[in-house]
Amino acid sequence: MNGIVHPYSNDLYERDEDRVRITRADGGVGFYAADGHWLAGDKFDADLHLCGWIMAPRNAHRLVTNPASR
Fold it and tell me: What pTM does this model have?
């Protein structure tokens, strides 16, 4: 698992290249865009805010990229 479980539906939201893969508790799988609209697979309601969060750019933390100062 490399994603987030939705707190109400228990669906798993994962990043899949340029789309969001949502795996439902019953095993159904659907693919959605960052804005929450359906692309492929099973069609069901998706949390558009969680889709956007999953697809947001990830950057390294500033303390990881800069050496410790002494």
Answer: 0.79
